[in-house]
Design brief:
Helix content: 10-25%
Radius of gyration: 28 Å
Strand order of the largest sheet: 3-4-7-12-13-14-17-18
Strand content: 25-35%
CATH class of the largest domain: Alpha Beta
CATH topology of the largest domain: TIM Barrel
Number of domains: 3
Number of strands: 33
Shape: elongated
CATH superfamily of the largest domain: Glycosidases
C-alpha cells in the first residue's frame, strides 16, 4: 500500500454541494465465475445474433403451458378474447408456412437459430395437463373435449419421430426423444441443454381458465414436476431441468394454493418447501431431478409523487412517465432482489412480508443452501418498463450487475419495446456485452463490491480471466448531481484503458476527457447525473523496480501547506477530477495557493493522496 498524507483529520466538505461522494471497495479474495446466460432474452424479442451479444434465449410465455409439439398448436388463453387455438408459436419463432404443422418444427427452428448464433436455448415444455389439439380458432371448451389433448409425462409405448395425430395425448418424453434425435443429447455440442417445466403455475387458472379452471394444489404441482423431470432425464440424463418459473409473491409465499397451509407447515417460505420436496424425490430416484429454480421478476412498486407507497399511486413498471419521482423509483427496482435494507414501496411488503425487505435472491439462495445445495437460480422473465427512458437503461444495467454479483445463473429479459429505435434495453446490454462494437465484454469473473448511497449509485465489478483487466460499472442514479466515486480496487498498478457509457442525451459511445485518476490501489472517478459508465482498467506493467528513482521515495509534511519528497524527482499534482494542477522537478510541493479539496501527487509509479 502507498502512503497517504492527510492534511486535516476532518474536512467540512470535499466537493461542492452539487456533487455526491460514493465510497466503494472491491473484494478480490472472493471472486467467482459469471454465467453469460444471464445476458438473455425471450423468444422473438430480439434476434439471436443481435448487437446485444446475447448469452441465452428462452422459448416461454403463457402459450407454452398448452403447446402441442406434434403440430405446433397452442391456445391463447386470456391473451386473446377468443381463447384461440392457432399457429402463434411456429409464427413467433419464424417457421416456414409449409413446415408450420410439422412435429417438433417450432422447437427445431428455435434451437437451430440459436446454434447458428452461438446462443444457449431454453425450451419450455407443458406440464399443466392439456394442450391445444388444433389451430381452428376460438375455443371456449373445457377439457376433456376434441379441442384439447392430454399432456402426459411418459409414453408407455415406443417413441416415434412422426407421432400419432389421432390419439388423445401428447407425451413430453417423446418430444425430448425427438430433440435428441434431431440435435443430439445435451452432452453434445449441438444438443438442447436446458428444459423448463411450464410457465407461471400460480396463474394457470387465470391465464388459462378453460384448460385449468381450479385453484392450484402445491401437492399436485410438485407431483407434476417430479414425474415430468423423471421422464425427461430417462431420455436425456444430461439435460438441465428448470423448475418453477414462479411469478410475483409466489416465489416467497404461494398462499393462493388450495393446500398452502397444510403443505407448508414447518417451512419458513415456499422455496424451502418446494426444494425440500424435490430433494427428497431426487434422493429417492438417485439423480438430481432439477438443476435450477426459476422465478419471474415484475416489480410492483407503486408510489405517490413523494416516492411513498400509495394504493392510488403509480405502478412504476407500467408507467411511461419521465417525471422525476418515476425515474427515481425505476432506478431502485433491482434493489428488491438483493438489498437487505431496502423496503419496497408496494402492497406486497405489508400484505405478505410483514414490512420486511424482499431480499428475494438471498431468500431463495438460503433455501437452496438448506434444502437442495447445488441448484442454480434463474430469472426466466423480468422487465422494468418504459425502456425509452434513461431511467430504464440505468436500472437495466443495475439489474445485470445484481445478477452477476448474486450468482444468478440464467436471466432472460422480457422486452416490451422490441424494435423501437432508441430503446435503452439495447444500450444497456451492449454496455456489458458489446461496448466497443467489436464484441468486447464485461469480465467473466465477478469481483464482489460494496458501496455507499445505494439510492444514488451502484458500483459493480468484474475481471477478465484472459487478460486480468478489471471492468467497473458505475451508475449515477441522481437526477441532477455528479457522483464522485472513491473506489478501493484492492490491487495496485492499474491504469484506465477506456471508458464507455450512455446518458439521457447520448447513446453508447466511448467517453473521452473524463475526470478520473488512479492512485495506488484507488480509483477516483466522476460520473455525471443519469449516466451509466463501463470503465476498463488494464494492468500497468511499470513497477517500482523498473523506475528511474528509488522505490524508497517518501513524502513528508513540513507544515500546513508544504510537503517534501525524499529525492529530486519529476512530480505532477492532479485534482480529484484528474486535471493537472502543477508539475515540477525537485523535492518541494507547495499547496498554499490551492483551493480546499482532494489532490493526487504522482511521481513515477508512486502516488499519494493529499487533503487540503
Amino acid at each position: 500500500m502507498k502512503t497517504f498524507i492527510t492534511l486535516f483529520a476532518s474536512i467540512a466538505t470535499l466537493y461542492s454541494i452539487s456533487q455526491n461522494t460514493i465510497s466503494a471497495s472491491l473484494d478480490n479474495e472472493n471472486t467467482y465465475s459469471i454465467n453469460p446466460m444471464i445476458y438473455g432474452y425471450n423468444q422473438n424479442h430480439s434476434t439471436p445474433d443481435g448487437q446485444e451479444n446475447w448469452g441465452s434465449r428462452r422459448l416461454g410465455g403463457n402459450r407454452m403451458s398448452v403447446f402441442n409439439w406434434e403440430n405446433g398448436a397452442s391456445n391463447s388463453g386470456r391473451d386473446l378474447a377468443t381463447f384461440s387455438n392457432d399457429n402463434r408459436i411456429p409464427s413467433l419463432v419464424g417457421t416456414t408456412w409449409n413446415a408450420r404443422n410439422d412435429a417438433g418444427e417450432a422447437y427445431r427452428k428455435f434451437h437451430q437459430d440459436n446454434l447458428d448464433a452461438g446462443v444457449e436455448s431454453i425450451i419450455t415444455i407443458p406440464i399443466m395437463g392439456w394442450a391445444a389439439a388444433d389451430k381452428n380458432g376460438a375455443n371456449s371448451t373445457t377439457p376433456p373435449s376434441s379441442r384439447w389433448l392430454y399432456v402426459k409425462p411418459q409414453k408407455t409405448g415406443s417413441f416415434s419421430l412422426t407421432p400419432d395425430l389421432t390419439d388423445d395425448s401428447i407425451f413430453v418424453d417423446e418430444s425430448i426423444h425427438w430433440l435428441v434425435n434431431e440435435f443430439g443429447s445435451a452432452s453434445t455440442s449441438t444438443g438442447v441443454k436446458y428444459i423448463s417445466l411450464d410457465n407461471e403455475p400460480g396463474l394457470w387458472n387465470s391465464t388459462h381458465p378453460n384448460a385449468f379452471p381450479n385453484t392450484i394444489s402445491l401437492k399436485d404441482y410438485v407431483s407434476k414436476v417430479i414425474e415430468t423431470a423423471k421422464a425427461i432425464k430417462a431420455v436425456d440424463p444430461d439435460v438441465k431441468i428448470i423448475a418453477g418459473e414462479f411469478t410475483g409473491i409466489r416465489i416467497i409465499k404461494f398462499k393462493d394454493a388450495s393446500d398452502w397451509d397444510s403443505e407448508t407447515t414447518g417451512y419458513t417460505d415456499f422455496p424451502s418447501y418446494f426444494l425440500d420436496k424435490l430433494k427428497q424425490a431426487s434422493v429417492s430416484e438417485g439423480i438430481d431431478l432439477i438443476d435450477y429454480v426459476s422465478f419471474h421478476y415484475y416489480p410492483q412498486h407503486k408510489v405517490d409523487s413523494d416516492n411513498n407507497f400509495s394504493s392510488s399511486g403509480v405502478v412504476i413498471r407500467n408507467s411511461t412517465s419521465s417525471e422525476n419521482y418515476v425515474r427515481r423509483e425505476r432506478m431502485d427496482l433491482a434493489r428488491s432482489l438483493w438489498d437487505e435494507n431496502y423496503l419496497e414501496p408496494s402492497w406486497l411488503t405489508s400484505a405478505n412480508l410483514n414490512n420486511e425487505p424482499h431480499n428475494i435472491l438471498n431468500r431463495v439462495q438460503n433455501a437452496i443452501d438448506t434444502y437442495f445445495p447445488g441448484v442454480g437460480i434463474m430469472i426466466g422473465e423480468w422487465d422494468f418498463g418504459h425502456d425509452m427512458d434513461i431511467s430504464h437503461g440505468i436500472s437495466t444495467v443495475d439489474a445485470l450487475g445484481v445478477f452477476a454479483q448474486n450468482k444468478v445463473q440464467i436471466a432472460n429479459r422480457w422486452n416490451t419495446s422490441t424494435g423501437n429505435s432508441g430503446n435503452y434495453t439495447e444500450q444497456a446490454y451492449k454496455l456489458l456485452r458489446n461496448y466497443d462494437g467489436a464484441l468486447s465484454t464485461y469480465g467473466d469473473i465477478c469481483i464482489p463490491t460494496s458501496f455507499s448511497n445505494k439510492n444514488k449509485a451502484s458500483v459493480w465489478a468484474s475481471k477478465s480471466s484472459t487478460n486480468n483487466k478489471i471492468h467497473l460499472l458505475l451508475l449515477n442514479k441522481d437526477l441532477s448531481k455528479t457522483n464522485n466515486y472513491e473506489i478501493k480496487l484492492g490491487e495496485e498498478n492499474y491504469t484506465i484503458e477506456s471508458i464507455w457509457g450512455f446518458d439521457e442525451n447520448s447513446s453508447l459511445s466511448e467517453i473521452t476527457g473524463s475526470t478520473s485518476n488512479v492512485s495506488a490501489d484507488s480509483l477516483y472517478f466522476s460520473v455525471p447525473s443519469l449516466s451509466a459508465y463501463h470503465v476498463v482498467l488494464s494492468p500497468d506493467n511499470v513497477t517500482g523496480t523498473n523506475s528511474t528513482f528509488s522505490p524508497e521515495i517518501k513524502l513528508t509534511q513540513l507544515n500546513k501547506n508544504q510537503y517534501a519528497l525524499s529525492q529530486n524527482v519529476n512530480w505532477k499534482l492532479f485534482d480529484i477530477k484528474g486535471r493537472l494542477v502543477n508539475e515540477n522537478f525537485g523535492k518541494l510541493i507547495d499547496t498554499g495557493h490551492m483551493n480546499t479539496g482532494v489532490y493526487i501527487l504522482k511521481s513515477g509509479n508512486k502516488s499519494w493522496k493529499i487533503l487540503k
